[in-house]
Design a protein that fits this description.
By secondary structure, the protein is an alpha+beta fold. 32% of the residues lie in helices and 24% in strands. A 3-stranded antiparallel sheet has the order 1-2-7, with no helix packed on it. It starts with a helix and ends in an 11-residue tail after the last helix.
Length: 191
């Protein structure tokens, strides 16, 4: 093959590759979609719904309390039980192997309980207070959402995760948690 034919083939291959790599014009639909998305704002983004706390009651001193349901703890135990023993002949050889079955037993370790928890009163849960709560949980790595000042479902889940560490499994913000975060002032006897 003459040398110039090899170069001609190489030129054809190079042109073919260049044509494949050249960007194709965008269709009108893609351009329209991009233009439409360019006008989107953060207000168009769906946000988590507000958390609906359980009913709050007050004592004579005006302290707020919320009822928290602590679910029952149930232990499930599965064991193998012999349904029929093995059958053997006179010399001790197994004629028919034993038959086993599975038995599952559930036991209530702790009954379901309704516990009254001293909670932060609703009038204290202002937008500034909730924003401070969100920032305090962000610092601890428990809240990844935006600081909105709204006690929404995302904030409630973070509060529940934080309180679960101390044995209180509820999204209702307890006064003890707010004090530990430095959001509520301590009483003199707590200093």
């Amino acid at each position: 093959m003459p040398p110039y034919q090899g170069r001609a083939n190489a030129t054809k291959v190079a042109r073919k590759l260049q044509a494949q790599m050249t960007p194709k014009p965008l269709s009108l639909a893609i351009v329209a979609l991009a233009a439409g998305l360019a006008g989107c704002t953060t207000a168009d983004v769906a946000t988590a719904p507000d958390f609906r706390p359980p009913s709050i009651t007050r004592d004579a001193a005006g302290n707020c309390f919320g009822a928290v349901i602590v679910p029952a703890v149930i232990e499930t135990r599965t064991e193998q039980v012999m349904l029929e023993p093995a059958q053997t002949d006179g010399q001790g050889n197994i004629v028919k192997p034993a038959v086993f079955g599975t038995r599952t037993v559930q036991t209530i370790v702790r009954e379901r309980q309704e516990v009254s928890v001293e909670a932060v009163c609703p009038e204290t849960m202002t937008a500034q207070f909730v924003a401070s709560l969100q920032r305090a949980m962000q610092v601890r790595g428990l809240y990844q959402g935006a600081v909105t000042g709204r006690f929404d479902a995302t904030t409630a889940a973070a509060v529940q995760m934080l309180q679960r560490q101390s044995g209180l499994d509820t999204p209702l913000l307890a006064v003890s948690t707010a004090k530990a975060l430095g959001l509520v002032e301590l009483d003199r006897d707590e200093l």
